[in-house]
Amino acid sequence: MGSSDAHAWADLPSQLTQALDKVNSDASSDGQMNAFTTSNAIDGPATFGIKAAGSDNTILVTVKNGSVEFTTGKPDKALFTLSALPQQWQEFFRQTPVAPYQSYWGMFGMNIKQEGIEVQGDQTAFAHWTH
């Protein structure tokens, strides 16, 4: 996916444009996504962001009971935003990522926090929606 140059990953939505189009078209028919988003615990829409550190261009993920939608915009449209350095996203999106880049939680670290990985915004909303 995209360039091997970490600088290209400084604008995550631009780097993932084709993937965002595909994920939106596939989301409604994905059984796991539908199972995850169909829950009485989701009593209203919630939007979170994913972005590269230093950029305001953000992937916005809006979860509603029974659906999910991926768009782009500014991080202020999200309750919280998962942020990582461009080179960390480059490693994360490799075809076969190596530890700790297989998941955001691996990068975030439970005991050792990597520099550049952070959750910005409403920490209570993050704790509420982390699952």
TrEMBL record:
Source taxon at top rank: Eukaryota
Protein name, UniProt field: SCP2 domain-containing protein
Organism: Cryomyces antarcticus
